[in-house]
Amino acid sequence: MGNSWASGSPPLLGETHDPTFVWKIHNFKDLVSRRGVMTAVSAPFYRYGFKWFLAVAPRHREAGSLYTYVSPCLGMVRDTMQSEPEYYVVAVFELSIYNHSNGMYYGYRARSSFSVKHPISEYKCLIPLSELLKSSDFLHDDCCVFAVEILNIDVFSPEKKAIVKATTVQNLFIQKNGFIKKMYSVSMNFLELKPNDLIHSHTFELGGHKWYLGIYPHGDQYSTGYLSLYMYLEALEGDPPLEPRPAVDLVVSIVDQKYGIDHFRKTIGVVVYPGKHRWGFSNFCPLSTLQDQPRGYIVESRCVIQVEMAIVGSSN
Asked: What is the DSSP code (8-state) at residue 290?
C-alpha cells in the first residue's frame, strides 16, 4: 500500500536514519520522460548475507489516486534465497529520498516478507512527481538520491546467518541522447521442447558487452504454468570490477505471427547489470495464453521472441 499523504514531501526520518544503500540517479528528468519506462532497477547490493536491489517507479499511480508518485520498493535477488516454499525472510526497512538543502533523508518505514515467489515489497508512494520536479530540495542539478536502510531481518531457516555490511553507494547516469540500440529475435520449435529444457540464444554484442537470452519454455524453478525468460550479460575475462556498468532499457515481446499487431509485450524498465548477471521474468507469459491458437503466438509449432534493448546510461 502507499501512504496517506495526498501531496507534499514525506516526513523527516531523523538523524538515526543510516542508509544501507544509496542510489544517485543523474539526469532524473530524462528517466521520467522515457516512454515505456515504468521502473528503474539498481544493481544488487549486499546486506545480512543476502543480495538486494532498489527499484524506483518514477510515474507510479495507485488505484483511485489523483496523484502520480515517485515510488521506490525493495527487492531481494532470488538466487540468494533457498527455493523451499517454507523459506522466507521478513525485513523491516526505511525507504527514503535525500534533501540536498539540509542533508537529511525523508521517507517511510515498511515491513515486507520476501520469498522466491514474492521477491519484492510493495511500492511506497514517496512524493508526488509534480512536487519533486519543481523542488530544488529533492532534485538538485537534475540528480535525485534515493536510499534504503534495512533495519533488521528475520530469516525463517536455521541455516542462514546474518552478515552485516557497510553502506553501499551507487550512481546511475541516464544519457540524454546517443543511445546504443539493438533488436534481436529468437525462433524456437516450441512443441518439440521438453518441460525442463533451457534455450540459450546465440551471443550478440551491444555496447562492447556480450549478451544472450535464456528461455525456459515451460517455466523455471520459480514458476508454474508460465514461460520464463531472462537477458544475461556475460562477464568478460579481465573485466575491471569498478568499470561503469551498463544501464539497459529492456522490452521483450512474443511476436503475433498471424496478424502482426497483438504482440505479447513486457518491459522491465531500466535495469543495471553489475557484471555477469541476469534480469527478466520468471512469470513472463502464461502457457495458456502462449498456446491459444487464435492469438498467433505459435504458428506451425514455431514461436518467435523479440528483444528491444537500448543502453541508456551507466552505473558504478
From this structure: H
The letter for the amino acid at 263 is: H
How many angstroms separate the Cα of 286 from the Cα of each of 6, 83, 184, 196, 290?
Answer: 36, 21, 22, 16, 6
User: Distance of CA 72 to CAs 33, 123, 134, 260, Å?
Assistant: 17, 5, 19, 35
Cell of 59: 510515474
Grid look-up 539526469 returns 27
Please give the Cα distance from 129 to 132 (Å, whole number).
5
CB 274 within 8 A of CB 172: no
pTM of full prediction above 0.85: no
Parallel/antiparallel/unpaired status of strands 40-41 and 264-272: parallel
CA atoms within 13 A on the CB side of 101: 6
Nine-digit cell string for 36: 515505456
Q: Quote the distance between the C-alpha of residue 224 and its chain's center.
A: 21
- Count of beta carbons in the 10 Å neighbourhood of residue 37: 21
**In the predicted model, is pLDDT for residue 177 greater than 80?**
no
**Exposed, middle or buried by CB within 10 Å (0-12, 13-18, 19+), for 100?**
middle
Cα 172 to Cα 166: distance, rounded to the nearest angstrom: 20
Of 241, 302, 279, 283, the C-alpha closest to 40 is: 279
Residue 93: alpha-carbon gap to chain centroid: 18
Q: Does residue 89 contact residue 114 with C-beta atoms inside 8 Å?
A: yes
Bridge partner residues of 182 (DSSP): 309
279-314 pLDDT, tens digit per residue, is 888 899 999 999 998 999 999 888 999 999 988 888
Mean pLDDT of 195-212: 86
Rounded to whole angstroms, how far apart are CA atoms 219 and 227?
A: 5
Residue 250 phi/psi, 5-degree rounding, is: -125, 125
Report how far residue 57's alpha carbon sits from residue 295's, in angstroms, rounded to the nearest whole number.
Answer: 31
pLDDT at residue 5, rounded to an integer: 41
